[in-house]
Amino acid sequence: MVRNGRSLNVRAAVAWASTAALAGALTGCGDVGGGSVGGGGGDDDVLKIGFVSTETGSSAPFGEANTYVIESMEQWFAEHPVTVDGAELSVEIVVKDSQSDSARAGEVAAELINSDGVDLVLTSSTPDITNPVSEQCEANSVPCISTVAPWQPFAIRDGDQPADLKYSYHAFWGLEDVSAVYADMWGQVENNGKAAGLFPNDPDGQAWSANFPALTEDTGVTIDDPGLYPNGTQDFSAQLSAFEGHDILVGVPIPPDFTTFWQQAGQQGYQPKVATIGKALLFPSSVEALGNAGDGLTSEVWWHPTAPFTSSLTGQTAQELADQYETDTGKQWTQPLGFAEALFEITVAAVQEAGSTDPDAITGALSTLEVSTVVGDIAWGADDSVPPYVAKTPLVGGQWRLDEGADEGTHPYELVVVSNTLAPEIPTGGEVEPLR
Fold it and tell me: Which residues contact 375 (CB under 8 A, 6 or more apart)?
């Protein structure tokens, strides 16, 4: 693997129907099975994959498992070359850190394409990163496979209609899914139907604040939004004053901002009966940063070790992947782990289906690709409620439970699945308990 040029070992629409115009935006692939092997990398026997990761900065928890997965995949491909049209391709992975910055994400994507000559680009971790990477791939006619951003802020970038994307393919759930999961969790706790909205002024916050009030109104929950705040806010007194009397807290702040908010909420006496926070509460490290105050907080769960899914590459189950990660790193499993591996599963399936590393052949293969991955079944072009370059993935809800008797050196928090109405194949481990 090459990292930053050095070798390293080891908002809008909610329901959307496909239209002829968008369907026509998909790039034709010609003879998908007969393209020549060898693409942007310039080597006929090498598949060169670029990965825009997020390993530093405010969104670093999203990329915490990426290095582990990339190194694991490097080792896997060293022993299992990708076979395309009877030819074996070695795999080279070139990694660039976005540093949690949108401008840099676009810059390093351009470097991967124009300087490193990758055949395709993988990326994840919020629309702040996926979108600028996608835009560079569109501008340079290079396939982009992305995940870990709700499909609306990924697809709807300007105005109220999905963008006309030809080379970008995205796999993740949508706001219609997360709102349904949240509503199910809220319904498990007696509340007054008043929710406080904590939404930042970034692509996620803009999309969530624009859509969530309408998405939850039929559930009897009214979301009061005092306005978008800038990322990095240090004083949430204005928000906390507006949130008084709200039994539910909902929002999508970055991890450090929620830590600041929740500490100030405790100091100022605001404690809802249920707090459901996207983005900031997805990771063990972020919850542990809250100390005991993280107990009982809820969030969406995109991937869990108990999910009955298996990697199409390694054959590992979700549980086996999580266990191996904990054994190898000493860290607790984290949700992006499964999606980082799924990006490589999708890549291999697409290149093999294309029979080529030609960019048009790969995008053509992606347009109808179906693959079972460690995060579930992924299929493009199968759901008319989303743009054709979006494939939806399963979603459940979870609650963080603190084990106050945990031995030193063990993980103090466990993420328990408490809502599976949208994905009943993923078992629950209990029901939502109100905050104490």
Answer: 171, 302, 303, 307, 309, 318, 338, 339, 342, 393, 394
**Confidence at residue 403, expressed as pLDDT on a 0 to 100 scale:** 85
* Sign of the four-CA dihedral 223, 226, 230, 232: negative
Residue 197 to residue 349: CA distance in whole angstroms: 40
List the Cα angle 108/112/117 in 5-degree steps.
Answer: 160
Domains of the chain, CATH where assigned: 2-174+306-391 (3.40.50.2300), 176-301+395-419 (3.40.50.2300)
Sign of CA dihedral 87, 88, 90, 96: positive
**pLDDT tens per residue, range 71-122:** 999 999 999 999 998 999 999 999 999 999 999 999 999 999 999 999 999 9
pLDDT on residue 19: 34
* CA triple 354-360-362, angle to 5 deg: 35
Identify whether the C-beta of residue 125 lies closer than 8 Å to the C-beta of residue 336.
yes
Classify residue 63 by its DSSP letter: G
Residues 6+ apart with CB under 8 A from 107: none
Q: Is the pLDDT of residue 1 over 90?
A: no
Q: What is the pLDDT at residue 109?
A: 98
Spatial separation of the C-alpha atoms in residues 345 and 137, rounded to whole Å: 20
Q: DSSP string of 362-425?
A: HHHHHTT-EEEETTEEEETT--TTS-TTEE----EEEEEEE-TTPPTTS-SEEEEEEE-SS-TT
pTM across the whole model: 0.87
Angle, CA 176 vertex, CA 174 and CA 181 arms, to 5°: 100
DSSP 333: P
